[in-house]
Amino acid sequence: MNRFLAFTAAAALALSTATTAFAADVTLRITLQLPMKSHLGQNLQLFKTEVEKLSGGEIAVEIYDSAQLYKDAEVPQAVGQGQIEMGVASLTRYVGEIPAVDVFYMPFLLNSEEKVRAAVEPDSGVRGPIDEAIAETGSKVLWWQAYGTVVLLSNGEPIATPADMEGKKARVFGKTLGEWVQAAGGRPTLISGSEQFLAYQRGTVDIGMTGVSGVQSRSLWDVMDTITRVNVADIEFIVVMNQDTWDSLTEQQQGWVMEAAHIAEKDVRDRVSEIEAAAYAEAKANGMKIYDLTEEEVQAWKDKAQPVIDGWLKSGGDLAKKVYDAVQGLTN
């Protein structure tokens, strides 16, 4: 009798496993450089929940966080070439092929939530052309993930003026912000987000550049003690899908994916201010000092910014000018 029960239980388990394995017609793997506890990780979890619910399990989503599969800089090529179905990448990772994406990293250009929200609307004159250009790399943009505004990290004293940057090595995550650091007298060093902690710990750089939510998700208070709220630029990540993968989906499956993407995009955009506030609170609780610039200090930074913008417009081509003009239209 016991042997019969054991056999029955084993058979039931095998049937359950087989049912789970064959329940999903499509499996979408997503690569993420941040840990799952980050708000981008949680946003992907929301997408996973929604698309699996909408599809009744026909579509399964697997999330590989903390750069298990690909570092941030590798995501555009990995997704575009079909090495993985989906990925999350910092928008600036496309700057080599599409200089116009750096409109979001032009110093002090999109420095309010209202301006950013208008710029990232799917049909805006800023985002629309960028999404179309990214499509030419072999990837379809599903949604944009708000990450917050740029802060500077340091030890001991805040980075209040360009003089505080003079001669110091600063971690950057994009070409344009690197040029801004250089214009201010600093020495920019491009370092992947997943490698920040070690870079600060080892003294590879003197100054950090990230979003405050990154301070929280990566526990950067263990290696840096001061945040300067410089608010120089907006940080955006995008979730992309390989175009061939997208084309292989049925029309109904595409509808489920886009509905889930819209839910995820709205959720993260609506909560970014709350997310940043919580991150600042936790940073303070872990001993970090928060410094807000005076109007005079902001102006000193801005004075270093205009040559960077002028240089980008000169070298960025027609698309860069198009999206820059669109931003100007939003802010007038």
Features:
332 residues, alpha/beta, D-Maltodextrin-Binding Protein, domain 2, globular, disordered N terminus
Classified in CATH, the superfamily is Bacterial extracellular solute-binding protein, family 7
Which structural category do the helix and sheet elements fall into? alpha/beta
Taken from the alpha-carbon principal axes, the silhouette is globular
Counting structural domains, the number is 1
- Taking all Cα atoms into account, the compactness measure Rg is 22 Å
Q: Would you state the CATH class?
A: Alpha Beta
Quote the distance from N terminus to C terminus: 81 Å
Summarize the structure.
With 332 residues, the protein is α/β, with parallel strands linked by helices.
Describe this structure in words.
The protein is an alpha/beta fold and 332 residues long. The chain has one domain (2-327): D-Maltodextrin-Binding Protein, domain 2. It is 49% helix and 19% strand. The chain is built from 13 helices and ten strands. It has helices spanning 2-23, 39-54, 75-80, 113-119, 127-135, 162-165, 175-183, 196-202, 212-217, 243-248, 251-285, 295-315, 317-331; strands at 26-31, 59-64, 86-90, 139-154, 169-172, 187-190, 208-211, 226-229, 234-242, 289-292. The strands form two sheets. Strands 1, 2, 3, 4, 7, 8, 9 and 10 form an eight-stranded mixed sheet that branches. Strands 5-6 form a two-stranded parallel sheet. Helix 7 packs across helix 12 and helix 12 (295-315) packs antiparallel against helix 13. The chain is globular, with a radius of gyration of 22 Å. The termini are far apart. The model is unreliable at 1-22 (pLDDT under 50).
